[in-house]
Amino acid sequence: MLEAFEKMKRHYRERSSAAEEWKKNGGKVVGYITHNVPEEMIIAAGLFPFRMSGDPFETTQIGDETMEYFFDPSVRSMYNMLLTEKFDFLDFLVIPHSNDSAFKLYYYLMEVKRIEPSLNLPDFYLLDMLYTKWFATSLYNREKMLAFKGRLEALAGRRISNADLMAAISVANENKRLLRRISDLRKKNPPRISGTEALQIIGPSMFMNKMDHNRILEAFLSETDSLPPKDGVRVSLEGSQIDHLQFYELVESCGATIVTESHSWGDRYAADLVDTSFGPIEAITEKYHLHSPSPRAYPNGGEKRHCLDIAKDADAQGTIFFLLEWDDAPAWDYPAQKKVLEENGIPTLCFRMQKYLLSDTERMKSEIESFVDSIRKRN
To answer: Which CATH number do you get for residue 55?
Structure first.
C-alpha cells in the first residue's frame, strides 16, 4: 500500500512524466483544460488524455504581457506555461467552452499563433458545448461531440468504433468506482485518509494511463485496513477549483481533516459515471452535458443544495470556502450556500479573492485555527 501511494504522489508531483513517456514511445498526447472534455473519447482513439494545470509557484511574466489581469489565475498560469513551451510534449490541445477564461484562452492562442508562428504551440480545438438543460442543447452537443470524434480520428489516423468507445468508457467508469472507494475512506468516522492524501490519489487519474492508475488504486485499496485514523475536525471545502496542495496542507495543519470537497480535482471528479445503457456517443454527450463534474451550472441554485448534501454525507462539522480572485462563478453561489449551511447547523469560514500562490498565510492559519477551535467547543 505504501508503495502504491508513493507512486501516486510521484505522479501528482511530476504531472507530465507519464505523458512524456507515452510521447517518447511514439504515442500522441492530447492536453485539455478544465473538466468538461470527454477523456473517454480520447482514450478510445488510442491517445493519451492529459489534464493541464497551472503552477502557482512559477511567475506569469510572459503571459502577463498579453493577457489582462482579470483572468482566472490558473488559466493565466497555463497560458504562461504554453507560451514558455512547458507543454511542448502535447500534440493537441482541447479547450472547452466551460467558463469565460477558458473560452477566451482559445482566442488568445489563436492570436498568439498568428503573430508568433515560430512558437512551439500544439494544434488546438474549441469544444463548443453548451450547458443549458434543454433538449435542443442536447442535440447541439451531440453534433459537437461527433465533430470532436472526427477530429480525434484524424489525429489518431484511424476510425473510433463503438466498441472502442465502450471499452474506454468501461476503463474510465472503473477508475471512478475505485475513486469512490477512496472517498468512502474519507467519510469514515474517523477518516482513514486526509484531504491532502486524497488529492494525491485522485489527481493521477488525470495525469497517467487510466489502466495503470486502476491497478495502483486496487493495490492501495487492498490494504486500507492498516491505515491509521485521522482525528481532526471534519470540514468540507467549497468554492474554486484547487489544483495544488498548498491550501489543503494549510487547513490540515490547523487541526482539521478535509473529508470532501466540491471541485473536480477532488471528490467531484468521480461523482458520475457514463451511463452504458444506451449508445456510447449519446452516453458520453449526456454525461458531459448534464453530469459534468462542475460547480458551474445553469439554472443557478443547484449548488446550494449540493453543498449541504455533500457536507451531510461526509458528516462535516464545518465548511470552508476558498474563492480565487477573478473566479466569479463560485462567488455568486457563496451567499446562498452559506445561508443554507448555517441554517442546518454547519458553521462556515470564507477566504475571498485569494491569490493562486497563497499569501498572508499566517493570518489565514490564525482564522482557520479559531474556526476549528470554535467547532471543537460546540461539539
So the answer is: 3.40.50.11890
